[in-house]
Amino acid sequence: MFEDKNYSKLERLKKGLYSTKNVFVKKDVSGLHSKNYDVKTDWELEAPVSDNSDNSDNQMPIKNKSKKEKSFVEKFLIFSSALFFIATVLVLFTIFGGVNSVSTSNVDISVTGPATVESGGELSLQIGVDNKNSTDLELVDLVVKYPKGTRSVSGESMEKFTEPLGTIRSGKEIKKEVKAVLYGEENSEQQIVVSLEYRIADSNAIFFKERSFDLKISSSPVNLVISPIEESISGQEVNFSVSVISNTKEDVKDLLLTAEYPFGFEFISSDPKPDFSDNVWKIDSEKQVINIKGVITGQEGDERVFKFTCGTPDENNEKKISAIFAIAEKSLEVKRPFLGIDLAINGDSRAEYILAPNKPIRVDVTWKNNSPAKILDAEISVKLKGSIINKSSINVEKGFYRSTDNTIVWDKRTNGDLAEVVLGDSGRFSFYFEPVGIGTRGSFVNPEISMEVSAKGNRVFENATPEEVVSTIIRTIKISSDLAVTPRATYYSGPFTNSGPLPPQVEKETSYTITWTVTNTMNDISGVRVTSSLPPYVRWLGVVSPSSEKISYNPVGGEISWNIGDVDSGTGVKTPSKEVSFQVMLLPSVSQIGQTPDLTTEVVISGKDMFTGASLVETFRSVNTRLSTDPGFNASKANVVE
Questions:
Q1: Which domain holds residue 471?
Q2: Mind listing the pLDDT tens digit for each residue in 461-508?
Q3: Looking at residue 438, what DSSP letter applies?
């Protein structure tokens, strides 16, 4: 049965090994001779050795068979890897360098232009695109990305330029000239990126190639010049200017100048006024000078650095610079005065103080000798400036008010402590005053009070000539306007005809006319709004006079809102007041018998003072059924009756 040709040698060997009969075919081995092999002993662990020498042809050693199978697998893997490597190389060669293929390395972009350009001057670039591929480039777009602030020759913002080039044939070159106006800070490095986007036939892939071109800005379109200031006395006012000067043939317009103030600097004012906040100005002329006023505080030897930047505004934020044209910095050294002084207005020592309407003013002047030498005959004075000062209200402690020149003086005649001031000596003086009364304020526009405080004396060293020392600081008071609303209720007068019993009766409706009158004395006010609410027993009738006024009623909560907008200075004083009337209906309850119920709650008026920048909010009384301003009314008609 083992002679069947359909069985392999391996199958015959397997059947022989596992046969229960252990039957083997015996072959003639008379012609063979024995040969000794040096067989390692560890083979015994891998495969058992048969004692039957006659079966040597039929039993293949198991380890030799395994080695042959392993050798075949290894050869197959090596062959497969080699085949894959060859295929990969062929694919890469086909894509990047083969015949009839497209490679980005076969697309050359050349950019020719100047190494430097004046800021604000025209830049011309010659761009060449050479297609060295054997295939046409289709739907080609040339894209040029410029630095921020770049404009077209016609003056429009242009930070990216795109031009379709169509199809570039195989082996052909296209040349283009692009022009732009670059702006930038002097000696700054600028980079222009030229890129090409294209497709090839029978492919949806987009290929990309780019090249950068570097150049330098040789000059700035504007120069910034800061007036010379080297040091400042702590607590004293400092004035300086920043000049923006055009440095191009064409006027530079639509620029921004921004200031970065150092720690310890308090901005007071500028001429012209900032366009945004207290540190951003629009520049629209060939030369513009910004004069800045402020106060610097600090310790002896402190350095304060001011930084100014000029450039084009950001398209998304008009308060922010997009492309910088020029930067200028100025440092100041803070000095401590020998005879130091400070001034606080109602406890506030800031350089500018906003005074609410109808408030009195208390001023405290403090002084101290910072010099190692003693100071003799010290004198401290405050010169008041401002037409709104009520001179008769000035009250000075331990000093003298000299009305001839509107100056308050403290010296050794009014205070003996000032005769001789040694190192570390200090003191405080006070005075009080008020602005003029409300009745005369209509003649003032944007009123302010300036106080110039001076301290002087003779500094004396041993065996030396006395040296005069002087310190000066300035403080400003801006007075907010008197924005007011006068509410009143009427029955017999006003634009509407009212009905119902008077005095009001329980569970019977009576209508009333409510009138609000707005006045404003000194400064222009913006965003003026008057609000109040109706009690639950009062009904809104929906009639308003004049009908053009923007007055609204919200039934949820019963709020009435009158949006007035801008109210000019002198409204109700030099010009007619703002006024609106509306009608409401009262339905009294038995719980209100004998009372004068409110027709509205308290009235609140709000707005922003355009001179001081302060937000104004004032609250005025509510109105009730006691119609004291109605000519036809008497007190007996005020209380609710049955």
A1: 353-479
A2: 766 677 788 888 889 999 999 999 999 999 999 999 999 999 999 999
A3: G
